[in-house]
Amino acid sequence: MSVAFRRESDEEHREPRFELPIPPGPNLVTARGLRLIEAAVARLEAAVSAEGDAERLAALRRDLRYWHTRRATAEPAPPPPSGQAGIGCRVTFRLNAATRTVTIVGADEADPPAGLIGFAAPLAQALIGAEAGERVAFGGRDEAIEVLVVD
């Protein structure tokens, strides 16, 4: 029989399972972000101990390694100077005649549709350090964003 028609095993045709990528740079977190990380670790540890399927167990362990790393490297973000936008601040701004409010958070806490943007996002980078009434550059345009309120 030709080697081309022989099936050795399914293992040789499986997609490789890579580790979850860790965002580059410091792992700055808000107090809420740290609680979310702790909750993810607890949830995954419970799931690992209850899982019987080997393939699902491997995926859960991979996720748990990611969250253990994120917990071990978490650094509480320092509070920004009074009146300045920073990690943990809610910022209301005007861009292209539309007013939006976002909260600047850590990478794992980010949820843009919910108004939570990671501190490494270009919009957050433009806002960090800004004060109410200030105009900042964004998207290659000077004074593109007008900062209205910093909480």
State which percent range the strand residues make up.
Answer: 15-25%
What integer is the average pLDDT? 91
Number of strands: 7
Task: Work out the helix count.
Answer: 3
- Based on CA atoms alone, the radius of gyration comes out at 22 Å
Which strand order do you get reading across the main beta sheet?
5-4-3-7-6
Overview of this protein structure:
A hairpin with a 2-residue loop joins β6 (135-138) and β7 (141-150). The chain is α/β, with parallel strands linked by helices and 151 residues long. 30% of the residues lie in helices and 25% in strands. The protein is elongated. It contains 3 helices and 7 strands. The strands form 2 sheets. Strands 5-4-3-7-6 form a 5-stranded mixed beta sheet. The model has no long low-confidence stretch (mean pLDDT 91).
